[in-house]
Design a protein that fits this description.
The chain has helices spanning 12-22, 37-47, 63-70, 88-93, 106-120, 126-136, 189-195, 243-248, and strands at residues 3-8, 28-34, 51-55, 77-82, 98-101, 147-152, 155-160, 164-170, 173-178, 181-185, 201-205, 208-211, 215-220, 226-230, 235-238. It is an alpha/beta fold. The protein has a five-stranded parallel β-sheet with strand order 2-1-3-4-5, sandwiched between helices. The chain has a five-stranded antiparallel β-sheet with strand order 10-9-8-12-11. A three-stranded antiparallel β-sheet has the order 13-14-15, with no helix packed on it. Strand 4, helix 4 (88-93) and strand 5 (98-101) form a beta-alpha-beta unit. It starts with a strand and ends with a helix.
Length: 251
């Protein structure tokens, strides 16, 4: 019998990536995709998947909120998908079988699948799962980028991370504002964010990263939003859903 899989991520590109990487496994049946936590709760309750790949950071309702809403005992086997390794402890508490860091590849997802298959087959109990996750520890991460190679007008430039003002998602690309110019880089925002120092860049909106050292002022706006004023004079809106950024910026 096929393992029924639900994919939950607010970024369409990540959902497509997970679907593509899972498509080569004959024992899996992808029953659907969700782009937000609310629809994920509905799908889990109605479709009863065996396995869910669940993004952690989503607006309004995070992946952890989804687990709380369903209840850990009623959740399908869960693999958290996230750009941050700081959610390991919460993954333990939610009885997740694994957490996969963005960006990820075929081999990493295959390891998570192997662990999920064992859990579904009854070869891993909750204690085994916790030991397996604890054995992962904090995954090895490359040193944060100090420079980006950016192209403009046919010329390649090495730009210091300190010179970057903001980074904004633009489909399968990102716009990088640096040195009074805007560069285009073929990479997703989540993929690039995972390579940057989390202490130096804050995601103030689902589509925007900002260099915290370039922030001059933060002003309250309406309905819990804020306006971030940069040392360039630019003003960017900060979403009230970006709780991690608000905590990072002392709000």
């Amino acid at each position: 019998m096929a393992i029924r899989v639900l994919i939950v991520d607010d970024e369409p590109l990540t959902r497509r990536s997970v679907r593509r990487l899972l498509s080569g496994h004959a024992d899996l049946e992808i029953i659907g995709e969700c782009g937000d936590g609310g629809s994920a709760v509905t799908a889990i309750r109605s479709e009863r998947p065996d396995l869910v790949f669940l993004d952690v950071e989503m607006p309004e309702m995070s992946g952890l909120d989804v687990v709380r809403r369903i209840g850990p005992a009623k959740m399908p086997v869960t693999v958290f998908v996230t750009a941050y390794d700081r959610y390991a402890v919460q993954a333990f508490d939610a009885d997740a079988i694994d957490y996969v860091l963005k960006p990820f590849g075929k081999e990493r997802l295959a390891r998570a699948l192997a662990r999920a298959r064992d859990r579904i087959a009854g070869k891993l109990n909750a204690s085994d799962m916790r030991r397996a996750l604890a054995a992962l520890g904090h995954p090895e991460r490359a040193e944060p980028l100090e420079r980006l190679t950016l192209e403009r007008d046919g010329r390649m430039r090495l730009i210091s991370i300190d010179d970057i003002v903001w980074i904004r998602a633009d489909g399968n690309y990102v716009q990088v504002r640096a040195e009074d110019r805007t560069y285009i880089l073929r990479e997703t925002l989540s993929s690039l964010e995972a390579k940057l120092d989390a202490r130096r860049f804050a995601r103030i909106h689902r589509s925007t990263l900002v260099n915290v050292r370039r922030i001059r002022e933060i002003q309250p706006w309406f309905r819990g939003h804020h306006v971030v004023i940069l040392d360039t004079g630019e003003q960017l809106r900060m979403s009230r859903y970006q709780r991690a950024a608000a905590k990072q910026l002392g709000l």
